[in-house]
Specification:
It is built from 17 helices and no strands. It is mostly helical. 33% of the residues are buried.
């Protein structure tokens, strides 16, 4: 109905859902939105990185758009025309676009497209909102510092507190869908899972490693896709570790003790991961092949069994 002039919607609103071109109109509108909000290569990049069909990509876009309220965010950024510098405005848009792309990839990689979209949007929107509303209660270490520094930088440039806080928190929100799924798998409150998820990130150095990959410069289309894949795989490994440690926490052990116990049971693999990460951090320059090698050590750790 929203695709028609207001007068037509007012007079013929009941008949519009049965319009013979309904599917074509919806497809045209969603396609236009994907280009406007995600960039002209949005669908092409999703096909290349996930192998998904056009229908699935459209569903993934709608999921990401509605869970994170992307349209309202872009509108807020547009209202800052001539109030902040164009460079800052473009940076805000870029951060939201990256969140949109990441959430769409998550939807496609986790094979959510065969489930009813409306129920998924409602479920994940509520949990993401809960995480966002309680952000300051569980952020710690490097992630907390990054959020605070980003928030201060944006507000200094004239961005309002609410928008600045959201954009500064996009790395956290990028992980929130994995947090929500881990909470569903473990049948535990999403805030308890969020606290554990980000504590694991600090304990294993995953937060800094994620920032290194995210901030790495890409010089080609293939490198851009590689960076996205590395970030997705890192988030998936962190989710797998979180779910494994949650089993210990459900048995009554405290969160920090569960993390220590899980790491102690996998000492050799934890050491290999830490050594690989230290070698990466000591390197004078990095490249995507190095990130892939280090990430393989994390994947081995995430899927490992306790020592016997």
């Amino acid at each position: 109905v929203g695709g028609f002039p207001p007068l037509i919607a007012e007079r013929f609103g009941d008949e519009l859902p049965s319009h013979r071109l309904r599917r074509h109109i919806i497809a045209m509108r969603v396609g236009g939105e994907m280009v406007n909000n995600g960039g002209i290569t949005f669908a092409h990049r999703m096909r290349e990185s996930t192998g998904a069909s056009d229908d699935a990509i459209a569903k993934g876009y709608l999921f990401a758009r509605d869970v994170f309220g992307v349209e309202a965010l872009f509108k807020s950024i547009a209202q800052l025309d001539h109030k902040i510098t164009a460079a800052v405005q473009y940076e805000l848009m870029d951060r939201i676009t990256n969140l949109l792309r990441g959430a769409t990839r998550w939807f496609l990689r986790n094979r959510r497209q065969d489930l009813p979209l409306e129920g998924q949007v409602a479920s994940y929107s509520n949990d993401v909102r809960t995480i966002w509303d309680n952000l300051k209660s569980f952020l710690e270490g490097s992630m907390a510092s990054y959020w605070q520094d980003s928030f201060a930088a944006y507000t200094k440039e004239g961005v309002g507190d609410q928008l600045a806080a959201f954009v500064a928190g996009t790395p956290v929100l990028m992980s929130s869908l994995n947090v929500c799924e881990a909470a569903q798998l473990a049948n535990m409150p999403v805030l308890d899972v969020a606290r554990l998820f980000f504590r694991i990130g600090e304990a294993l150095g995953l937060t800094r490693f994620s920032r290194q990959i995210y901030d790495s410069r890409v010089e080609s289309h293939w490198q851009a896709i590689a960076r996205e894949g590395l970030l997705d795989d890192l988030a998936s490994d962190q989710k797998a570790i979180t779910v494994a440690i949650l089993q210990c926490q459900r048995a009554g052990m405290a969160g920090d003790a569960c993390i220590d116990n899980w790491m102690e049971q996998r000492r050799p693999l934890v050491r290999r991961w830490q050594d690989a990460l230290a070698e990466l951090n000591a390197a004078p320059a990095t490249e995507f092949a190095m990130y892939a090698v280090v990430l393989r050590e994390l994947s081995n750790l995430a899927r490992s069994e306790p020592l016997r």
